[in-house]
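QA checklist item 7 of 12: single-chain prediction sanity check.
[x] sequence parsed
[x] length recorded as 196
[x] structure emitted
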Amino acid sequence: MVKTSHKKLKARPQAAATTELTTADLLVLSLLSERAMHGYELLREFDQQEVTEWARVSRPHVYYALQKLAKLGLTVQVAEKAEPSSIRGRIIYQVSLLGKAALRDDLGRAAWASAKAPTPFSTWFGLSIHTSPARRKKVLASRAAFLKSEIERKNKTLEFIKNYKSIRAPAGLQLVRLYIEQCFTELRWIESLESK
């Protein structure tokens, strides 16, 4: 059984039975569960699905995770695609049965519902007692303007997702709707601060 968490891995060899999966590992397993792909295709999906909007994973994490998962037997090589512009081909991976089980097990953990990461704005607000009222008001106005632009941008994203054919599209719609609601809630909260 693969142990999972969202801590960063230490640079030491680990057996599949004791390896902790990172968010990047889970993302790669998830994308490869949709279809077999090589690394470049994974990155294209990563960008198209705006992963950085809903997961703290960078592009280099994707390649590292792909290599790690292959070594652990959580993915398997199914083909090598020849590339005319390259000396070596691109390795196409798919999720192994062990990888599907690891993904399923990790996504069933209760910890997903209780994990909380503070935003930079939350940190600023907690520290804002040490700034002047004028500067505080200016930052709050900037935050309100940012939230309004995010709502506008995400409404456009909703239209794109409605036409996107993917197993992930229904979840994407719900994530974007949740984010828009959170922006509206925060805007109302900022307006209530201004009225005090």
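[x] summary fact logged: The longest strand covers residues 75-81.
[ ] second reviewer sign-off
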